[in-house]
Amino acid sequence: MTSTDRGAWLAIAALVVSPVVAAICLTLWNTPVPISEAVALLEDVSRKPRLDFLVPDTSYYRPIFHIVLSTIWNADLSLDARLAAIRLLQIVPVVALVGLFLLHLRPRSLLEAGAAAAAMAVLIGSPGFRDNLEIPLSYTIVGMPLALAVWHLLVAPPRWWHTPAVLAMLVIALGFKEQGLAIVALVVAAWATRAQGTTRAQAVSAVLLAAGYVAVRLAWHSRMATFEQAIGFGFSELDPPTATARFGSFPAAIYAYTALATVANVVFSEPTSGIFSIVAAITRGTTERWQFIQLASSVGLTVLMALWGVAAISRVRHEGWTDESRSVVALVLTLAACGALSFNYSRDRLGGMATPFYALAAYYALRACARRAATLQPWRLRAAAAGLLLLAGLWHVRAIGTAEAVKVTALRNQIEWLTGLPQRTREFADRPVYLSILGTLRAQGTAESRPRPTNYPTALMGLFSPANVQSQ
Amino acid sequence: MTRPRLRMIGVVLLAPAVLAAGVVLGLEGWRLVQPRSPLFGPPETFTLAEAIAHHDVARAYRLIRAGQRPDDVIAVNHPTLTAGRQRFVSPLWWAVAMRDEHSMLMLLGVGATIRHAEGRDADCLAEALGAAAMQDLLRRYGAPPDGPCPKQAALSP
User: Fold this and answer.
1) ipTM summary value
2) Which of A173, A192, A363, B13 gives 20 to 30 Å between its CA and that of A380?
3) Does the predicted TM-score (pTM) go above 0.95?
4) Rounded CA separation B121/B100 (Å)
5) Is the CB of residue B84 less than 8 Å away from at least one CB of chain A?
6) Gap between the terminal Cα atoms of chain A
7) Structure confidence by residue, pLDDT tens digits, B20-33
8) How, if at all, do strands B74-77 and B86-89 pair?
9) How many interchain CB pairs under 8 A, A with B?
10) What residue segments make up the domains of chain A, in order of their start?
């Protein structure tokens, strides 16, 4: 295989996924900056000096995010330029993540290009990716390509600059959100599996950095709320006071449930925010097609990955560690990190740092399954090919669903601007900075030609996202 | 033996990606060429009454921005609510009649008011229709006048 071939298959894989990625990015570019969270965040960065965000006196400690947002918002630029920069803070990481993912896989054949395209759909169609596309909340979407870049360096031949680069990316990801700690799990995974780009000193440095970060956070904020936000439990949501009254002041069991809920959301797409909404819909007989698609595609892929993962790890004793077997360890450890970091409440977006590694493992699992299928008897080969076609097809439907979900968010943002002003004006009457930002952003929020979700024909309604959302 | 088979499975894996790319390209291309197609939004409307009836709050807002005053009465016609006859009512009243909470809140945001007069008593209509959530929002943000509601003539056959 020549280097030209390698480039060609990489280009083909990039070409087939680019329409969905471009649709997502174009929609984000035209999405109104919303009222909810955005105006309050801009109020914060307008009122506080930039360096004050370094003090860890809040549960939501995102110093680098706030400093970047402050730099953008307080820059001597036109409103349009500042809003464009805020949108780019969301769009650039998406493009970087997709680009890095494909470069890391580097498909070298038709089969690998097909597996890479399917894995790309897994990445884009996953709840951990979809839920991190909300402007201007770029906390985790910035961390996701950084995590993948770190992994790429860890498994690559060592260079002198790799360790400083890994530590710098860890600091940046941590500065955007505590979920950046998942990068430490990657460093440990690489060190434990003797990846060529890692050293003991690097692993120790990353662990010490993480320990120092946690110590500083705990020292400054020693009294954490038992529940920071509403939690899901079983089939319902509990607000923080109700949850505290029900589960006590240190509810280890419910913390474990919430952590496992985040992990399960990455690998099974259920529960969402700790609530088994698809199971509830099945028991009530109100399931929509998108719910079947999400559950079936996730369960199917995770079962396939489990079988491949066990086989990959069992080969380590004879063959040593490979990129394939290392990716199993990277997935398990990032999932554990995402679960642990979401003990307090579970949301789809909190699984974001593990999502690229779920997709990476999906690539290896699909490739291994395809290679195995090629050696089977003809009728088994046909059955395996049909199964792979179905699985890849379902994930591509989910990827289109993500592009639609971003449009739904854009429409919701606009409706919020059109309808939310009386309430906000009254609620924040004593906050002049908030009201001034509300006035400044109103025109962009209510502007014409904002993205709208597609009104699919009735036969396709509910295939990509909830039917009532599509028809709003 | 396995090389053609590997190629066949490669095609199987790549085919849905090519199809998905085609669907997205076709759809977004069509959106670019025909942005007003029913595929990409509610049907085009030309009056505030129509926009509210189609729950198109963005279009209703644009009509207001273009000069339509939020308290000027509009001509509406509904088989039950106006007994199939044309009536003149306030946009807020019509938004409640159409149970369009978004348009109702938008109208309140641009200064629409409630009066206890026929066709302008949006809060009374919400009560008569049993739309408790809308009634609550109208009371909170619409500052309805004190005093009893007039008879809902529009609801009478």
Assistant:
1) 0.90
2) A363
3) no
4) 16
5) no
6) 51
7) 999 999 999 999 99
8) antiparallel
9) 144
10) 1-137+378-472
